[in-house]
Specification:
The chain has a 3-stranded antiparallel β-sheet with strand order 2-1-3, covered by helices on one side. The protein has 4 helices and 3 strands, in the order αββαβαα.
């Protein structure tokens, strides 16, 4: 519940890499892509939803111990190490808030 929402907000405060959207780097994202355990902004969350990924609002979702633990075990740094390991920004630049796709 609400206690988990506060703890998720703390994960953003304590872990600097979670203070920005993993995809476009917009500051203070309000959503978590639970499929990948990443913090994402509204625009990037919408794109994730289009691909069938599970998105949860940090403050307005019902969080269980299991769902919180799953997110806490991930985060943007771990996801970037896994999913962006071979990514080259020169070949595929990050989307901007205006063009998240």
């Amino acid at each position: 519940g609400k206690n988990f929402s506060k703890r998720l907000c703390n994960l953003q405060t304590v872990l600097e890499e979670n203070n920005a959207c993993l995809i476009c780097e917009e500051q203070i994202p309000r959503f978590i892509c639970t499929t990948f355990q990443t913090f994402v902004c509204q625009h990037c969350a919408d794109v994730h939803r289009e691909h069938g990924h599970q998105i949860s609002d940090i403050l307005h979702s019902e969080w269980t111990t299991e769902s919180f633990d799953l997110v806490a075990s991930g985060g943007n740094k771990k996801a970037a190490q896994q999913w962006f390991a071979f990514w080259n920004q020169d070949d595929f630049p990050r989307p901007t808030k205006a063009e998240p796709e």
